[in-house]
Amino acid sequence: MPVISKIQIKNASITKTNLFKLLDLISQEKFLIAPAEGPDLEDINFLPVTGAEQICFDYENTLVPPKEYFFGQSECMFSFSPRSNESITVTDQSEELVFFGVRPCDVKAIELLDKFYERSFVDDYYLSKRACSVIISVACSQLNEECFCTSVGSGPVLTEGFDIQLIDAGNDFAVQVGSEKGLQLYEQYQDFFGAPIDVDAEKEFEKAKASEPGFDLQRVYDRLKSNKVDDRLWADIARRCQSCGLCLLLCPTCSCYTVIDRVTPNGRNLRMREWDCCYFEGFTRMAGGQNPVKPKEEMIKRKYYHKLVQQIDEFGMSGCTGCGRCNTVCVGNVNWLENIRKIEGSGRDV
Amino acid sequence: MFNSRTYIPRATIIQDIEDLTYDTRLFRLKFKGLGDCDNSSESDYEPGQFVQVSVLGMGEAPISICSSPKDKGFFELCVRNTGGVTGAMQKLEKGDEIGVRGPYGNNFAIEKATGRDCAFIAGGIGLAPLRSVIKYVTAKRADYGKLAILYGARTKEDIVFADELSQWAQIESVEVHLTIDEPQEAWTGRTGVVTTLIGEISDMSEGKCFVCGPPIMIHFTIKELLDAGWTEENIIMTLERHMKCGVGKCGHCYIGDKYVCTDGPVFTYSQINALEVEV
Predict the structure, then answer these.
(1) Range A73-100 average pLDDT
(2) Strand order of the sheet with strand A6-15?
(3) If you measure CA to CA, which chain B residue comes closest to A309?
(4) Which tops the pLDDT comparison, A308 or A4?
(5) Residue from A286, A306, A307 nearest B258 by CA
(6) Among B61, B241, B257, beta carbon nearest to A284
(7) In sequence order, what E strands does chain B have?
């Protein structure tokens, strides 16, 4: 069964006062994850909240994307006794999670991950967590410095693929309910919502697009697919990249992992899967030491190709959703957006 | 599928272990208990497929199945000591347990070779996955044309499946040619790398050629085959990659627009060319 069962979009509205009250109630009745300041850091991240006053409403986006709730940075696949495969125990996710404040780019990223984990072979760990989650996303009313969602078709307002979407309209939010799960949540808390109000999503999109340093995705796709990118670009990125992996760890669509068995003296033996990065040198190294993807240029090219060609071919949507996190965190000043624009321009007839 | 949940290995019991060389062992495995996915029926795996072998506490490694689907009631894995999991497997004994997931990957598409000559060129432990298909075609001998097996090992101590190589040579119109890299005491056979044997199959270039071995051996073998008139489409080889999941999720084996674990590991040379992979 698909993770999201789309329905015809149902429109409503909610006042900002009521939204606060609603989130407060949800945080007490269910498990609510929302943008909040961590205890030690000023960074805004998706954290469990137990009251609406803990939620940060004035945020651009979180530092870490919400994928970690469905595909954990380090998660147990099963526990075992080292002697017997029949001792294997799997714990399935069953607790309902309600997310508030996920941005359209991250909702799109989750949509891509859904498609990736649903295609054969299905990944129970991810899908079981997705099945018991419902997302209230908040459309962006302004474009942030590093974002470029309009170039990759993932914002600033979604047209489908969300559970519930809120669009800022001054004192109120326009509310759109787009899935069965969203409808269930809406109906459970129906009293908080009011009659539909008008928002001009198209105008928002045009406004955002005009202010964005965008690119033509189709042209980028064509350049990469036909291998017409100047090799000096890959060499330049390879020289700057320190292989720290931050851009990949914080990418809302990156899904690579490694598998590690943890055997501890106290008998808690776990097979773990943990985020891994295709920019790490050992990523493709085989037993015996041979590495078929050795030159860094090849690693880098593979990432661009994977997100901007292969995932478009396979899933019909860009593997980059334009959140811009990778640009913000790079220690080597590699700018993904700038490089995409260089790819777009490479080979252009002058 | 041997296992019912994607990432959960199924228990097998080691029925027998044969030391093939100083660092390579042949494991004969049987499923522990009889569940709904017993491997006694022929369709359970195809020549060329692999399993994720799991040694709990050490991890998993992708290993080709080297028995034939025609072998009933068990399957075999040929494992060389090269890493953590394969190292741990050297310490296992008859009666011990190993977990497996799979079978994964595509296969040698042997049905496309029906009625045609087939050559098998293997280097070192590369004979293991080819053994599966060699056993399969020799069991259905009448369905194929001439068969030739070219095998090269570093030293005579590195030769795997020596007895079976001589048994295959006894079968009608099956040629077997062996070579080791350097001359050695008490070796009367040929010396030189496996590509020096390709002249023996010059009359088979209209047939299919299955190649498996270390990257350097594959590189030169393909060059020689193309020079000898084989088409890219008729050269069939396996790609080796680091893998964690075997099911197209962990990303380690992703190249071009393919996942070696689910789209491969068997590719024709023309497919490899399209992927722009250097071999």
Answers:
(1) 85
(2) A6-15, A172-179, A164-169, A133-138, A97-102, A31-37, A44-49
(3) B257
(4) A308
(5) A306
(6) B241
(7) 10-19, 24-31, 50-55, 59-64, 75-80, 97-104, 118-123, 147-153, 174-180, 190-191, 208-212, 235-238, 254-255, 258-259, 266-268
Are A82 and B56 within 8 A, CB to CB?
A: yes
CB-based burial label for B116 (10 Å; 0-12, 13-18, 19+) = middle
B254 touches chain A (CB under 8 A): yes
Domains of chain B: 10-104 (2.40.30.10), 110-238 (3.40.50.80)
The reported pLDDT for the residue numbered A143 is 80
Chain A neighbors of B56, CB-CB under 8 A: 80-85, 261, 269, 271
pLDDT at B249 over 70: yes
Q: Which of A79, A279, A286 to mutate to test the interface with B (most CBs of B within 10 A)?
A: A286
Q: Is the Cβ pair B251, A90 closer than 8 Å?
A: no
Q: Which residue of A has its CA nearest to B249?
A: A256
Whether B183 has its CB under 8 Å from any CB of chain A: the answer is no
> Which of A83-97, A334-348, B34-48 is least confident?
B34-48
Cα A255 versus chain centre, distance: 10
Nearest CA distance, A288 vs chain B (angstrom) = 6
pLDDT in tens, B108-149: 999 999 999 999 999 999 999 999 999 999 999 999 999 999
Report how far residue B10's alpha carbon sits from residue B56's, in angstroms, rounded to the nearest whole number. Answer: 12
State pTM to two decimals: 0.93
The shortest C-alpha distance from A310 to chain B (Å) reads 6
Tens of pLDDT, residues A262-283: 988 877 799 999 999 999 989 9
Question: Is pLDDT at A3 greater than 90 in this prediction?
Answer: no
pLDDT of residue A218: 96
